[in-house]
Design brief:
The complex is a heterodimer of chains A (594) and B (454).
Chain A (H helix, E strand, L loop, with lengths): L1 H24 L7 H30 L9 E5 L4 E4 L3 E5 L6 E2 L10 E6 L2 E6 L6 E3 L2 E2 L3 E4 L4 E4 L2 E7 L12 H10 L3 H23 L6 H23 L5 H20 L4 H22 L2 H25 L1 E3 L2 E6 L4 E2 L1 H13 L3 H6 L4 H16 L3 H19 L2 H19 L3 H9 L12 H13 L22 H9 L1 H22 L5 H25 L17 H15 L10 H4 L7
Parallel strand pairs in A: 3-4
Antiparallel strand pairs in A: 1-2, 1-11, 3-5, 5-6, 6-9, 7-8, 7-10, 10-11, 12-13, 13-14
Helix pairs in contact in A: 2-4, 2-6, 2-17, 4-5, 4-6, 5-6, 5-7, 6-7, 7-19, 8-9, 8-11, 9-11, 9-12, 9-18, 9-19, 11-12, 12-18, 15-16, 16-17, 17-18, 18-19
Chain B lengths: L1 H6 L1 H29 L8 E2 L2 E2 L5 E2 L5 E6 L2 E4 L3 H6 L1 H4 L10 H4 L1 H4 L21 E2 L4 H10 L5 E7 L5 E7 L24 H4 L9 H11 L8 E3 L2 E4 L2 E4 L5 E3 L1 H7 L2 H11 L1 H10 L7 E2 L2 E2 L13 H8 L8 H12 L3 E2 L11 H10 L1 E2 L3 H19 L9 E8 L8 E8 L6 E7 L5 H17 L1
Parallel strand pairs in B: 3-6
Antiparallel strand pairs in B: 1-2, 3-4, 4-5, 7-8, 7-19, 9-12, 10-11, 13-14, 15-16, 17-18, 18-19
Helix pairs in contact in B: 7-17, 9-11, 9-12, 9-16, 10-16, 11-13
């Protein structure tokens, strides 16, 4: 209470002082006056812009809930009509089945009814009494046509699709589409606000450098804005999906560039290249995995590549800062473990029918062990935690078996503790945890400097480019949260973290309506990686957790990290089924599939 | 799919964990950011380990006690004044941890939660000035009165909480810190603000606590008569007075500071009651003066019985008192039993002046008790201490002569308040190892208090 009162008092005083300052300085002719005035004003505007952008992006994403669709109906003898509510539906005696049939001859998980590429399929999950279609027992999977009679252990049902034409995604009906378009948050305005934020931020950083301005900074930002506009117009023209998610990522990438401009301007261009490449990877992965068949093939390619990368890393990898995580290709160095993340998620995901048939996850567990083992050998212990967390999420979503997961987890954690307590720099990190202020110049240096920087920034920051944390090693990777707090303020730093949290809320909401558990698990796995990385980085840099050398997705400097983040984003986006409602203009041309 | 949807809740749990961590950090930040920012490695505030900008420090009359010009800190031009307020302002080398330069560094450097360390104009730091409630001239007077002794003087307004005099000796001239002879025992503890941080054996001033307990718990205590024959045997020990006091009431016993009477009263009250009143009076807890934590006086009567309990009620045994805490107790008695916490920083005309009183005032004894105790303290002065020494002050007080053993002279205490509407001041004076409260501490207090009301 005491501190709240004093804080309120200080806010009041600072308001009064700011006004006094402005009038006092009007009398002094100061060469730095224009830049100082700009900083004074911009510090207030940027956080407000950030909040507005966040709000405008979240609202449309939250409108996911409003769509309810029924894909078809199963009619059973006696007239009962069961609606089919998902793309993939499990049928069985278990309560968690989508279609529950409580009869003695039905297995707990009997079959899966899938709608894919315009056709219905039924898959037998190795049930006791089998599945018959029109009287014939099926082997594994069979396609269905409307009117087919499906028999599960004697129980007969007839499939009829919904009132829409087979093959089209359900669309909002006429009335609700008008309603939602009038309430629609205009994406164009949000995009403009983001560009404005980046332009003002760039100007701020340039002004703060004064004569030391590196001309590359405004050039890169102009290029970046150009790239963003290109993406925006292409997507708007050729895709009917919502792209608030990408806009939020652009916002984060903008923050990234602002950080790099302040800390390491010479690598600004490389970072922009990484962003562009990341966007390309994003669009590619999204296009490829849209088709589940292709997605499965991609899975195997990625897993194979991951194994190759890991082996390469272990053999020819470079040792830097005690960890062997980089491969040097001469013109570029990259971190293979970042790309392995994408392969890992893809390896773990599966469609519902495969999930419920193949009860064990031996292959996936094996792959996990290889990855984790390699990472341990590479001494990349932060990444081990990330993979482990993602493993728990994926394993739980696949098996639901909390007990086994808890057992394996505790075993793994105990093993980890046993091993790592022998490794000096980990012991140091653990020793520093919780009492960094006692070792403020030695093992607690980075954390205390981050906290000092955060405190110095206050709520709205000291102004881009005016911070001192940028001079410390790893300031733009491991301690980037501190840089955000110091230069742009606690508000903007928290907004950045909320965006990452929001990705996972978004993934959660999407799983309700997505086409296959393949996408659902992939989205949740990718979101969990984002969450864990952000938690380790942010909380580690301020001594809530031990410090680990992990990057925040999108915001930390790093080519591999940036590209991999976009790759993971594609996994989240692929679960998004929503389409923007047709505008009046297009409504006439209903046959159009755009 | 329902299956998958349900299980996706695990992601929600992970999100909550991250948010919890953020909240933890935010809590940490709100509580500690002002401390973090003052760390000497913060290049926003320090250059080469030295504070690179600071606001000015003024006293309540607008005297400039400290300013920074071109990287150099200057103190008040008068030697006595700057030496007297040295513990309040702090010194150049941050040796005085409770001085403003260290304790209020965040304000002096202009930090606040909203703006961080951002300054629009580095030249103009008037927004970072602080005004202390102290009256520097009065402090100088107090310093001169204490000259040669080790001790402390504290005077504060018991209605508003403003500390108008805070002096601790020995002190030194902060403008010339190099001239202190450190191995000289006369400068022992020179960096310590004895008013805020030290604890001493209280001696007879503790009888005020015992009296408060007696007023509330001994039936008909106003008329009750105690017999003092100069000494009293308790178990195997003897508690004695300097001279036999005869038959006395509580009021008379307080005025003559009769040990045997208070020994009997302590035994009557019992250790639990006495402990409760000691705790209420501020013992066994610290106060915070604008964030600076005071020392803690201790009274532990858990194993005290018989003679030990008797001595405790007289102010000996293992009791220790912090001068500022005790001064606040005097203020509570003066203020109808409500203790207003003392403060150094002036918050005139600001937001905090509205909310501060609401948050921190505390009732520590019932109003009737305070009134009766106050009357007895007035009686001390009129009947025993000599009203002519304190003419016009409307003084209510108690002397204390705290025995410290080991062949050393006792500490001299004098504590109380002025029962005047125009000068509602409570005070404490302690002079270490110097003799009796009445002969040493009281005259010092008289001179300073007279200066305060003129």
């Amino acid at each position: 209470m005491n501190n709240l009162g004093e804080s309120l008092k200080q806010i009041w005083d600072s308001c009064i002082n700011s006004i006094a300052d402005i009038s006092a300085t009007m009398e002094i002719m100061n060469l730095e006056l224009p830049s100082a005035i700009f900083t004074l004003i911009i510090r207030w505007i940027l956080p407000l812009l950030a909040i507005t952008i966040l709000w405008r992006c979240i609202l449309p994403l939250l409108q996911v809930r409003k769509q309810k669709a029924v894909w078809g109906y199963l009619y059973s003898r006696g007239g009962a009509k069961t609606p089919i509510k998902h793309w993939e539906n499990s049928i069985g005696r278990s309560n968690s089945s989508d279609i529950v049939i409580n009869l003695p001859y039905i297995s707990k998980n009997h079959a899966v009814l899938t709608f894919r590429d315009g056709t219905w399929f039924i898959t037998d999950l190795n049930s006791k009494n089998g599945v018959k279609v029109n009287g014939e027992k099926i082997e594994k999977t069979a396609s269905l046509t409307p009117g087919d009679v499906i028999s599960l252990g004697g129980k007969e049902m007839v499939l009829f699709p919904g009132e829409k034409e087979a093959g089209q995604a359900p669309q909002l009906d006429i009335i609700s589409s008008f309603i939602s378009s009038s309430k629609q948050v205009k994406t164009g305005v949000t995009f403009f606000l983001i560009l404005l934020f980046q332009a003002l931020g760039c100007l701020q950083v340039c002004l703060s450098m004064g004569d030391n301005l590196n001309p590359i900074i405004p050039q890169v930002f102009l290029l970046f804005i150009f790239v963003e506009c290109l993406f925006y117009f292409i997507t708007r023209q050729y895709s009917r999906k919502y792209f608030e998610l990408e806009l939020l990522c652009f916002f984060l990438c903008g923050l990234n560039l602002l950080i790099v401009a302040s800390a390491a301007p010479h690598s600004l261009f490389t970072q922009l290249l990484a962003i562009v490449f990341g966007i390309a990877v994003y669009m590619a992965i999204e296009a490829i995995i849209r088709d589940l068949g292709r997605a499965n093939r991609l899975k195997y390619i990625l897993v194979a590549s991951a194994l190759v990368l890991l082996v390469l890393n272990l053999t020819i990898g470079e040792v830097r800062f005690g960890a062997k995580r980089w491969i040097d290709l001469g013109f570029i160095t990259f971190q293979p473990s970042e790309f392995v993340k994408i392969a890992f998620i893809m390896a773990g995901t599966a469609t519902l029918d495969r999930l419920l048939t193949v009860r064990n996850m031996t292959a996936f567990i094996g792959f996990t062990a290889i990855c984790v083992g390699s990472l341990v050998l590479m001494r990349d212990f932060g990444m081990v935690v990330v993979f482990f967390g993602a493993f728990i999420v994926i394993a739980f979503m696949r098996s639901g078996d909390l007990r086994t997961i808890a057992l394996t987890s505790s075993g793994a954690v105990l093993g980890a503790i046993a091993v790592t307590s022998f490794i000096p720099y980990i012991a140091t990190r653990l020793e520093a945890w919780g009492n960094v202020w006692d070792h403020a110049y030695t093992i607690g240096y980075q954390q205390t400097q981050t906290m000092i920087a955060a405190a110095s920034g206050g709520l709205i920051g000291v102004g881009g480019g005016n911070g001192y944390l940028s001079g410390i090693a790893a300031a733009d990777t491991d301690l980037v949260f501190g840089m955000l707090c110091e230069e742009w303020g606690l508000l903007i730093a928290f907004i950045a973290v909320f965006i990452i949290v929001f990705f996972s809320i978004y993934a959660l909401l999407l799983t309700k309506k997505c086409r296959s558990s393949f996408y659902a698990i992939a989205a949740c796995g990718a979101a969990s990686i984002f969450l864990i990385q952000t938690a380790l980085n942010v909380l580690g840099s301020v001594d809530v957790l031990p410090l680990t050398g992990i990057t925040i997705p999108f915001i930390s400097r790093g080519g591999s990290s940036m590209i991999a983040s976009w790759g993971l984003l594609a996994l989240i986006k692929s679960a998004d089924e929503r389409l923007r409602p047709k505008t009046k203009k297009y409504y006439i041309k209903e046959g159009d599939r755009s | 799919m329902k299956l998958i949807i349900r299980r996706s809740a695990i992601l929600f749990i992970f999100s909550l964990l991250l948010l919890t961590g953020l909240v933890l950090f935010l809590g940490n930040y709100i509580n500690n950011a002002s401390t973090w920012v003052q760390h000497s490695s913060n290049r926003h505030l320090y250059t080469d380990g030295k504070l690179n900008t600071t606001g000015n420090i003024y006293d309540r009359s607008g005297r400039l006690l400290l300013e920074m010009i071109e990287g150099n800190i200057n103190f008040h031009e008068d030697t006595t004044i700057r030496t007297a307020v040295m513990h309040a302002t702090g010194d150049l080398n941050d040796n005085v941890a409770t001085g403003a330069l260290v304790a209020f560094r965040d304000r002096l450097s202009g930090w606040n939660f909203f703006n961080g360390v951002y300054e629009f104009d580095d030249m103009n730091t008037s927004g970072n000035d602080i005004t202390l409630n102290l009256d520097a001239q009065l402090c100088a007077t107090a310093y001169r009165e204490l000259a040669g002794h080790k001790g402390a003087v504290g005077i504060y307004n018991y209605e508003t909480g403003e500390i108008i005099c805070m002096v601790s000796t020995p002190s030194f001239d902060p403008a010339h810190p190099g001239n202190i002879p450190f191995d000289d025992p006369r400068h022992e503890g020179v960096y310590i603000n004895r008013l805020l941080s030290s604890v001493y054996v209280p001696g007879s001033i503790f009888k005020l606590v015992t009296s408060a307990a007696a007023i509330d718990h001994i039936p008909h205590v106003k008329e009750k008569v105690y017999k003092c024959e100069g000494k009293i045997q308790i178990g195997e020990d003897i508690v004695s007075c300097l001279t036999p006091c005869g038959e006395v009431t509580l009021e008379q016993a307080l005025a003559t500071s009769c040990n045997t009477t208070f020994a009997q009263i302590s035994l009557e009250l019992g250790s639990k009651t006495l402990q409760d009143y000691a705790n209420a009076a501020g013992f066994n807890s610290t106060m915070h003066v604008d964030g600076i934590q005071t020392g803690m006086g201790r009274v532990d009567l858990s194993d005290a019985e018989g003679a030990n309990l008797a001595w405790a009620g007289i102010g000996q045994y293992t009791n220790t008192a912090n001068p500022l805490n005790f001064m606040a107790f005097m203020g509570a008695i003066a203020n109808g039993g409500v203790r207003v916490p003392p403060s150094l920083l002036s918050d005139e005309g600001s937001f905090a002046s509205l909310i501060r009183p609401l948050i921190k005032k505390e009732r520590i004894i019932p109003p009737k008790t305070a009134e009766k105790l106050g009357r007895m303290m007035r009686n001390n002065v009129t009947s025993t201490y000599g009203e002519w020494n304190f003419k016009g002050l409307e003084l209510c007080a108690k002397t204390g002569t705290a025995e410290v053993g080991e062949g050393k002279l006792p500490h001299a205490w004098f504590a109380g308040y002025l029962d005047r509407e125009d000068y509602p001041l409570a005070f404490v004076v302690i002079v270490e190892n110097s003799g009796s409260g009445l002969r040493v501490a009281a005259p010092i207090a008289a001179n300073i208090l007279r200066a305060a009301v003129n």
